[in-house]
Design goal:
alpha+beta; 3 domains; four-stranded mixed beta sheet; 17 helices; binds zinc ion
Length: 476
């Protein structure tokens, strides 16, 4: 073995490759076998290179998971001693065993061997689960999946067909490195095949980096099959999985992710592709929940900021219209600071609260609907006030209507409209609004202010009534 010794001094970093199919570490000696130089060239070196071109990653570096290749020293003698393991592509980040103690090397080797066994059990569990569910057919273990153009292929742990849709299941082992994950993701996404990664352990505290890679890019859902889920699959005839996911939860004005775990069924999963092109299969739609939580927090913050000013305007208006501000000085003492504060928020209020060109009429209609009585006139109920608004303040009919709806005044209006005269008026004004009759449409100049004061109707207020009102009933 002098040859080995000779080159070992030069290239000691990678005495082994990891066989991804068995989880075992294979030494250079046993990889080369007993053949002579010609056998090694034909059976090992060229065959290995061909397999790499094929996208087949069986022998990888046990330290970084990258493809390994059989390289050769520049020696004169054509002996097998000149071969050594080398990364297919130079990878400066990986130093192999250099600098690592015997203990670390043993631990890494042991994990690989242990996982080989686990991997076998994993495949058996998935197979059993799929066989229990009649919606799955053509299930196969470790069979090649050839791309549609027949140029590339992958060999998933388990593949099957679910209601006409091809699905592959891959175990997430510690020997599954990120580049392997992403290559598979893109291969199957390109092929229109659903890919479901299954974890060995769903305790998020034990997640390794590559598990995080899968978990976070899979809409924060992780899955695994266990003996319990296999039992459930058999009992129910549905493929059961243990699922762990994150729930974005609003706590105060922050969002905290909380873990949740539950047994779910494959037929309850949703499948899509993320905005980054990552195919995803999930039970809980984290992204959607996150967006909702974020907008709830935004609304909450907005509310905390806007509330005092909104309330100040309302209490001023109620005091003013109820004549609780006896002198012009008393009025301005309250109004002027409001003008300043609203201007700071970008709203221009007139110098006098009752100014013709100002929002006064709109506010009177809106606050009356909100309080369930006319807050400024002697009209006895909201129907009588409605007639008045219909007659002389047509432009405020829209906000009046929306606020009546928002505050549930339907019963009130019905009770005070025994002869259905107001109902007739409503049909009339709605017709005018649909026909774009300008006299019945609000001035849009007040929209921003009204949206600020009445966020409960803001979304609808800014629309054209034509686009909001139900279609006109045809008379029989
Ligand atoms: Zn490496």
């Amino acid at each position: 073995m002098t040859g080995f010794t000779a080159f070992a001094a030069k290239e000691q970093s990678y005495p082994h490759v990891l066989d991804r199919e068995t989880g075992a570490w294979v030494s250079l000696e046993s990889f080369l076998g007993r053949g002579d130089y010609g056998d090694v060239i034909a059976d090992k070196r060229v065959a290995l290179k061909m397999a790499l071109h094929d996208g087949r990653l069986r022998y990888v570096c046990p330290w970084c998971g990258n493809a390994m290749f059989l390289a050769s020293l520049r020696l004169q003698d054509k002996t097998i001693e000149r071969f050594y393991f080398k990364h297919q592509f130079e990878n400066t980040a990986c130093s192999g065993i250099v600098g690592k103690g015997d203990e670390a090397i043993c631990a890494q080797q042991f994990m690989g061997a242990k996982e080989g066994e686990e991997h076998k059990r994993f495949k058996a569990r998935v197979l059993e689960s799929l066989n229990a569910d009649r919606d799955f057919s053509d299930t196969a273990l470790e069979k090649r999946h050839v791309s549609a153009d027949r140029k590339r292929w992958r060999q998933p742990d388990v593949q099957s067909t679910w209601k006409g849709q091809q699905v592959v299941f891959e175990a997430q082992m510690s020997t599954t490195f990120l580049h392997v994950i992403t290559q598979r993701m893109s291969f199957y996404a390109h092929e229109g095949v659903r890919l479901l990664w299954l974890f060995r352990d769903l305790n998020p505290n034990h997640f390794r980096l590559t598990e995080d890679d899968i978990f976070y890019s899979n809409n924060r859902n992780g899955f695994r099959v266990t003996d319990e889920t296999v039992g459930l699959s058999r009992a129910t005839g549905r493929f059961a999985l243990e699922c762990v996911w994150l729930v974005p939860t609003v706590v105060g004005e922050r969002i905290e992710d909380q873990w949740q775990t539950q047994t779910v069924f494959f037929d309850e999963l949703r499948h899509d592709t993320s905005q980054h092109g990552v195919p995803r299969s999930f039970y809980f739609d984290y992204d959607k929940a996150k967006a909702e939580a974020e907008s709830a927090v935004r609304r909450q913050k907005q509310e905390r900021r806007d509330r005092p000013l909104r309330d100040a305007m309302e209490s001023f208006c109620l005091d003013l219209w109820a004549h609780r501000l006896p002198t012009p000085e008393a009025v301005h003492e309250r109004w002027d600071p409001l003008v300043v504060e609203f201007a700071r928020r970008g709203f221009a209020l007139p110098d006098a609260p009752l100014a013709e060109e100002g929002p006064n009429n709109y506010l009177q209609a809106a606050y009356s609907a909100k309080h369930g009585r006319s807050v400024w006139s002697r009209h006895e109920d909201l129907v009588k006030l409605g007639f008045h608004i219909f007659d002389v303040r047509k432009k405020t009919l829209w906000i009046y209507r929306l606020m009546l709806e928002a505050y549930g005044r339907h019963e009130h209006m019905k009770t005070h409209d025994p002869n259905r005269k107001w109902a007739g008026k409503a049909v009339e004004y709605k017709g005018f609004m649909r026909n774009n009759n300008a006299a019945y449409l609000p001035s849009r100049a007040f929209d921003p202010l009204l949206c600020f004061l009445f966020p409960e109707v803001a979304d609808t207020l800014v629309k054209h009534p034509r686009d909001v009102l139900p279609p006109e009933r045809t008379r029989v």
